Structure formats: structure tokens, C-alpha cells
């Protein structure tokens, strides 16, 4: 019997199995289709086979990262949550997924990664607290830059900048999308009856973080909570398919214990603080040298013999530990 495929995902919080929309989509679909995946949760994307999360490592050693590609692979393995859909329902499913990518996804990026208070108080804080040192110093900022580029790509504007006008436009489009989803769901348990499909996985992945996370600026969250059937939809999926995660408190949780990296195993807190200070001092000195704020003068001393050249000392790269 072949070994199961291995799925790498972000850790969960807020009563969710993962804090990532893409990871939630894949996790929900795998549950709906009954796919036997070996799950590895972590807070260091560099430890995944693709360098990003989610990532699926198949038993043929192929690596997939996009939720759509992972779902297609699972369908080829006979784990198809859309098996019972009619041709019209399949077309409707594709249309609503495209609608969410166009109207809802940009607002989610803005809500969690661009809106200043949400980003500083929730998003950056969560990743900084859960990532291992020294990744927590720079990786959240790098992730934010990538999300801004993704938002610009989705909006077709490379010069797009955060602002009140953009926020209003994004939230207006998202509210319109949420209203259409609510109308399509109606009083049904799932979007196409009594069994969940890939559309249910996409909707759950997009809505659950907005619903469960406590956001300082919760404009989109407030509108979602007025659509009772969508909030019940998310709660039912958590109860039926992720009961362990759904029972957890939606408040902040303690950072996980990271396994692995050299920096994680520093036994003394003061030594760890010293390392942090040395890293910061080195960065500031490098910046000063590069910008010309500080220069190094070479003084020839005839009385002293010039010392021999020093060979550069290299050090092996170490993999940083992450939650898992």
C-alpha cells in the first residue's frame, strides 16, 4: 500500500484548524472528500518542500502549492467531493469561486495584511509570536510585501496604495460577494444540498478567518455576522469536520514549542537577548557602512609589518525550527 500524501499547513488558532485561507480550503476539501493525508502543521514555510504553505508532497515526490492544483490531484486519486454535482452545478461552482477571487479575496488581503491596525495588532503579532527566532524579525514583513503585490495583481494596478478610498471600494465589492453567497446558500446546509463540495471548501476557507478572528477594524466581519446563514455554515463545518479545533477558544493562544533550529535551543533567556542585540547591532553597523555614515580609514604604519591576509570563515546554513 502506497504511503499517504503529506500536507504541510500553517498552524491553527482562533478555533480554526489553520490561520491561512489557502490551508483552510485544502483542509476542508480533504475532509469532505475523505482523503487520507498525513498532516504536518508548522509556522515556518521554509520547512515545507515548496518553501510556502500550503504544500502537498505526493507519494510520487511531486510538490503542489496552489489549492486548485492540490484539489485536482486529489480528484485524480479518486477523492472527489464534486462527484455528485450536475454539469450546471459544476459550472455554478466555478463561477462562484471566480467571484470570490475577484471580489472577496482582495478585501481579505486588505483586512489582514494592509489595514494598519489589523496588521500590527493581529497579523504581524501572530506570526512574530509563532515563528522561530530570527525568522520572526523579518518574515512577517516579507509576507506582507508579497500580499500587497498579490493585491495589486488582483486589482490590475501596480501603483495601488492603501487608503480610505481603496478600503471603501474593496469592502463594497466584498459585501456584494457575501450577499450573493448568502442568497445562493439560502436555507440549505451546504451550497448544493446535503453534501459539501469544493465550493463549500472555498467559501469556508475565505469566511472562517474573518468570522473567528478578533479584529480591531472589523468592518467586513460586522457585515458577515449579519448574514446568519453564512455564519451558521462556517460553524457547522467546524462542528462536523473539525470538532477539536472548533471547541478551542477563539482568543489568543500561547506560541507553540518549536523543534529544530539552533536559536530555539538557547537555554538562557539573557543569552537569547544578547544574541538579538548582536544581530541588531550588526545590522545597524552594516547599514552605516553601506550608506557612508561611517567610513574605515586604513593607516599605513611603516614600522609595522603588514599582517597576512585572513581567510573568510564560512558557516553552514542551519534550518530554522517552526511549529509543527
Description:
Belongs to the metaxin family. Residues 174-237 form the Metaxin glutathione S-transferase domain. Involved in transport of proteins into the mitochondrion. Essential for embryonic development. This protein is mostly helical and 324 residues long. It has one domain: Glutathione S-transferase Yfyf (Class Pi), Chain A, domain 2, CATH 1.20.1050. The protein has 11 helices and 4 strands; from the N terminus they run βαβββαααααααααα. Strands 2-1-3-4 form a 4-stranded mixed sheet. α3 (87-114) crosses α5 and α3 runs parallel beside α7.
In short:
The chain has one domain (6-242): Glutathione S-transferase Yfyf (Class Pi), Chain A, domain 2 (Up-down Bundle), CATH 1.20.1050.
List keywords for this structure.
324 residues, mainly alpha, Glutathione S-transferase Yfyf (Class Pi), Chain A, domain 2, four-stranded mixed beta sheet, 4 strands, 53% helix, mitochondrion outer membrane, Sam37/metaxin_N, mitochondrion
Amino acid at each position: 500500500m502506497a504511503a499517504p500524501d503529506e500536507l504541510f499547513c500553517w498552524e491553527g488558532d482562533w478555533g480554526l484548524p489553520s490561520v491561512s485561507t489557502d490551508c483552510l480550503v485544502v483542509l476542508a476539501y480533504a475532509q469532505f472528500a475523505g482523503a487520507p493525508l498525513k498532516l504536518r502543521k508548522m509556522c515556518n514555510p521554509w520547512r515545507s518542500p515548496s518553501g510556502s504553505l500550503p504544500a502537498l508532497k505526493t507519494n510520487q515526490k511531486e510538490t503542489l502549492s496552489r489549492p486548485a492544483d492540490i484539489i485536482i490531484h486529489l480528484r485524480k486519486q479518486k477523492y472527489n467531493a464534486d462527484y455528485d454535482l450536475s454539469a450546471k452545478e459544476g459550472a455554478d461552482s466555478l463561477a462562484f469561486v471566480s467571484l470570490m477571487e475577484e471580489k472577496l479575496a482582495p478585501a481579505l488581503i486588505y483586512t489582514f495584511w494592509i489595514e494598519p491596525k489589523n496588521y500590527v495588532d493581529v497579523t504581524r503579532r501572530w506570526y512574530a509570536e509563532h515563528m522561530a527566532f530570527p525568522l520572526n524579525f523579518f518574515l512577517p514583513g516579507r509576507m506582507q510585501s508579497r500580499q500587497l503585490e498579490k493585491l495589486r495583481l488582483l486589482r490590475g494596478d501596480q501603483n495601488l496604495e492603501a487608503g480610505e478610498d481603496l478600503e471603501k471600494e474593496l469592502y463594497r465589492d466584498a459585501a456584494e460577494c457575501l450577499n450573493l453567497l448568502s442568497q445562493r446558500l439560502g436555507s440549505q446546509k451546504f451550497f448544493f444540498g446535503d453534501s459539501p463540495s469544493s465550493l463549500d471548501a472555498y467559501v469556508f476557507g475565505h469566511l472562517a478567518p474573518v468570522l473567528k478572528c478578533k479584529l480591531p477594524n472589523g468592518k467586513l466581519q460586522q457585515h458577515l455576522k449579519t448574514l446568519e446563514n453564512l455564519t451558521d455554515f462556517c460553524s457547522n463545518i467546524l462542528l462536523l469536520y473539525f470538532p477539536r479545533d472548533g471547541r478551542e477558544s477563539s482568543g489568543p493562544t500561547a506560541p507553540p514549542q518549536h523543534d529544530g533550529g539552533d536559536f530555539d535551543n538557547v537555554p538562557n533567556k539573557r543569552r537569547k537577548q544578547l544574541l538579538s542585540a548582536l544581530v541588531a547591532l550588526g545590522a545597524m553597523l552594516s547599514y552605516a557602512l553601506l550608506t557612508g555614515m561611517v567610513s574605515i580609514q586604513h593607516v599605513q604604519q611603516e614600522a609595522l609589518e603588514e599582517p597576512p591576509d585572513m581567510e573568510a570563515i564560512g558557516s553552514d546554513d542551519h534550518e530554522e525550527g517552526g511549529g509543527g
